[in-house]
Amino acid sequence: MVSQTEYELIEQKVKQLYLPGSPDSINQLQRELQSLQRSPAAWDLANLMLSSPDQNVRFFGALTYTVKINNDWHSIPTTSVHQLLSQLLNWIILHRSGPRFITQKLIATLVLALIKFPSDASTIWPYPIHDFILSLSQLSVVINTRSTDADLNLQSETDFAVLIASFSRENLDTSLLFCSTFAEEMLRADVPRQDRPLLQKLLADSTQHALPIMTTLICTTPSELAPDLYPVLTSSFKCYRAWALSLATSSGMSPELSSVAAIFPRVVAFLELESDDTVFSTVSEVMIDFMEWSDKLVTAQSMNTLLHLFAGPWSASKIQQIVADPDSAEDGINLYFLNAFISFGELTARDISGSLSLSESQRILELTLALVKVAGYPIEDETVSKRTLEFWDLFVESVLYDDDGVLQQAGDSAASASKEKAAQATTIMMTVIESLWHKIRLPPTNIFSHWSQDTRDQFFAFRKDVADLIESSYQLVQPKLYSVLVDFVIQSTSSGTPDAVDWPGVEASLYALNAISQSLTSSPVEYETLKILLDSNLFHLLPQSPMLRAKQTSLNLISSVIPYFQSDPGKTYIPVVVPYLFQCLATSSLALHASRSIFQLCADCAPVLAPNVQDFLAIYRDMLVNGHDIDALAKERIAGAIAEVIVQGVEELERKVAYIGELVGILKVYAEQAVAAANSKVDQQQQEDSILPKDIAASALKSLAMVGKACREGEDLISTHTPEQKRAYAETLAQVWDAPGSRGRAIKDEILSVVVTLSQRVPDFAGEIAVRQNACAVLRAGFSERGPGPFTVSAEVIVGYVREEVARVGNLATMQPVIALVGGFVVANSDKESEDASSACAELLDVLYSGAVVPNTCASSALQDPDVNQGMLEVMQKYLARYTPVLFSSYCFEPLVGRFAVEMLTTREPLVVKAAVKFWTALINTKMRGADEAELVAVVDQVVQATGEVVMGKVVWAITGNAPRSLLTEYAQLVKAYFRLYTGLAQRWMSAGLAVEGEQQQEEKKRARRMFVEKIARLRGRPPTETIVKEFWLGERGQEVDFA
Amino acid sequence: MSGNAYYELYRRSSIGVALTDALDELIKDSKIQPQLAMKILSTFDRCITEILSDQAKATRLSFKGHLDIYRFCDDVWTFIIKDVHFKMEGNEQVVGEKIKIVACNYKKPGEP
């Protein structure tokens, strides 16, 4: 019990809580009061507070009840539940006329108490709505408990109706609040699954008593209802919606649900009360919610009511108002109407598409089309047209696909009907797309510049939505639309003067054509129409267009129809398009887009473009000299593109060499820009504003690598030659590229000089990962060339380069590209079997070991670079596959394999562990090589046996619970490999590893481990080895339950 | 959806694997019980489904390729597509040799 003095102090604190104060003092008060709310005395305190004259204290009393029930409901005996419910109901009766927030809290608490004891509710309080209403009416607590049915004191249906009819407005409002809360809380997400059926039954059983309350006002004639009752009417709608949705969510069709759904048309009738915003908005919200659950809540009769409503004159007048003044749809009655109209359209799109001849369907389509035609720019001036897009999408989908989502074919049994339907729908969609075409036109700059960034973003999002609709509609409207759009462009550009062109219209047309082009299949009929477009003045006028966006969109369109240019008829137009693309390179905002298409077209259509090489080189030189703000990626792509044209398109070798020499010369100038920038003393501020010298260096190298890639691909052209021709060609190439004093040799030296200068001679670039990466990429480009070429270099050059890079390494993290370069060299030379290649590989391994592995593994584990470790393991695997004797005979074999590769098996880096496991698995699997390698297999055998115990020790460490679960699959692979090829030895090694703890192990654990080894040995690497390893891992961790 | 109605397919994503490893560590250190880990994973199943559905920025992407294999089993569609060309916003393109698409119904069978 709380003494009067104590209570007064508490009440004082509650009052203080609601007064302004410092956050610290309020936090302190909250902590104290929360502690009191959880104390055993809280029940008494709650009752005392609910008797207080202060409304805040009364609210806190109600809140205390909630906290107490939430915290202590487990300890409340069933016998006390009745008392608890009675007390709460009594407080509601007493406070029904007081502030609503207190009544609300008390009602929520009462419902909470009911939810917490669902299994007892059916006996303790089987008819809560009935009793609540009766209690309010009698002003005394009535709680019917069910010992037997005879004990129930229920009102007859008529008496109950009379009782409600006599209710005061206050009682009606309180009852509606209880019904709403009851319905909403029944389906709270945190209600335990097992309690749900009981609560659903309680809800269903209570429907008979809730309905008369909800319908008291809903079933009146709207025009006869006094305006002062509108707030209660709104509560009635909300209660009705809560009840209906709870019933619909919790069960299938039931008599209760049907009786609730039958009232829906009465709700819709209240739309005529347009004078009251709140009533109108609530009714439209109820309608929208019901339409979402239409299969359960909208009966055929209701659907008919809605159809007549939305296709009728009232709806038409509303749409007319919106079209005349789109701002009116931003809020108020018109907004609510529009929400409901659009929801209805989306709900019935399929029905409308199936009954296009019905006047109601036609009316709905006309009204929706009127919304598309609203004047003004979307988003900035109006948001109405945007809202119709979903409807049109659904409409098109319904026409094209049947109920099962299968595309409807014109030749189906119902062919004539479906053809007629498709024809009608095509006409409608052509009109819709035409209207939307007007909507996606870009505004003049003077208007666009005043738009906020958010408006611009939303406008472009709208354009994308329209593009999606055009794409999905295209199956319906077919080439007709393509022709219409192309015709517009041709007419607009027919005068041949840029000033006479409707550029926003042309841009919108190209935008729509781009959307369609993305969905075209190979060799479509539309390509015939595309030819007309390419023959027009468009690409001659576009460079002079004042509208940048038109050029951007044209670039997107070109990119979308690349397959056409790759076809024979399309190749004719490449000389039209590619020069235009090169012209676009001069504009920095277009360069990236243009370069992508150039790269694709040059790679695929090189011979057609060969006559233009000289022009391309001139444009490229200018681009590198003057286009400082052009994206580096564009410069790199263009280098690759021109190289593709030279290598694949130019037939005469001498000219080819001359052009490559010119291109390399241009790139050398680009590289010199990087060196000059690094050498000039540019202050920090200037550097932040412009491209950094190291980025220019990296880009110059990347451009060279792109040229190298093109040279590699060019060699495929000679694959059709006879062996003799190939030999002769190779000799010619050697003369051109390798002979001392030749032009080719000079180009090659120039390339090497750029690589060495940028990556090794400029101190500012030392250790820059991007520079090193791209320098290595240039050298790697030569590995793939089949014969002598500008990028092929001797093994000696590679060894020298790697040796110097390793010697100069400042930061181990930048070593990874060099390691990958060695890996590439090993793979590229694996089929040459020359002494030189073999000794170069051996030398490279030693250099890498001393330069990368030793310093990395000597560093503390925190400073070690995982990329270096992973890269080394991958290189070792390449040696194992291609130069096994080199690996085995290296002086660093023992530290590399016996120590480094073993240690990496238990590092914390997952990718390193995976690489280590792959290496060891590959090593073990070497045993499977053929008899012709018997000598090698014998050596490998010895290595596996010598390292077996220590490697298995690492595996045992991992699978006895120390490795993360995500790496178990990898370790299991290694276990499989050992047990498949070395079963007996593997069993011995694993047993030894598992017996490390020896005498201290419990018998049970020993037995489990022994059984595990036996199981694994029996499986010999077959399934389910992995599952058993995982189970063993779980057991070793002491986890009986596998939670994942 | 309620309770355990969420698919567990995101557990094999990088973030799911990392979470599972982290939970394993916590269990090993006796900081949590496996039952709590189960609860956390089922919360993860729900959250990642909802977040991807509601909050992941919708980047438009279209792709074309050759449908190699498709199947529909237990309300799960699986498509294996070869030579796939992805076209992202701004006509950015990516080419993939082979992709696998696993598509589940957002609502499980029998749910409203």
Automatic annotation (TrEMBL), chain A:
Gene3D superfamilies: Leucine-rich Repeat Variant. Pfam families: Importin_rep_3. InterPro entries: ARM-like, ARM-type_fold, Importin_beta-like_NTR, Importin_rep_3. It is found in: Nucleus. Belongs to the importin beta family. This is Armadillo-type protein. Keywords: Nucleus, Transport. It comes from Myxozyma melibiosi.
Automatic annotation (TrEMBL), chain B:
InterPro entries: TFIIA_a-hlx, TFIIA_b-brl, TFIIA_gsu, TFIIA_gsu_C, TFIIA_gsu_N. Coiled coil: none annotated. Residues 6-52 form the Transcription initiation factor IIA gamma subunit N-terminal domain. It comes from the Eukaryota. It is found in: Nucleus. Pfam families: TFIIA_gamma_C, TFIIA_gamma_N. Keywords: Nucleus, Transcription, Transcription regulation. SUPFAM superfamilies: Transcription factor IIA (TFIIA), alpha-helical domain (SSF47396), Transcription factor IIA (TFIIA), beta-barrel domain (SSF50784). Residues 64-105 form the Transcription initiation factor IIA gamma subunit C-terminal domain. CDD domains: TFIIA_gamma_C, TFIIA_gamma_N. TFIIA is a component of the transcription machinery of RNA polymerase II and plays an important role in transcriptional activation. TFIIA in a complex with TBP mediates transcriptional activity. Belongs to the TFIIA subunit 2 family. This is Transcription initiation factor IIA subunit 2. The lineage of its organism: Eukaryota, Fungi, Dikarya, Ascomycota, Saccharomycotina.
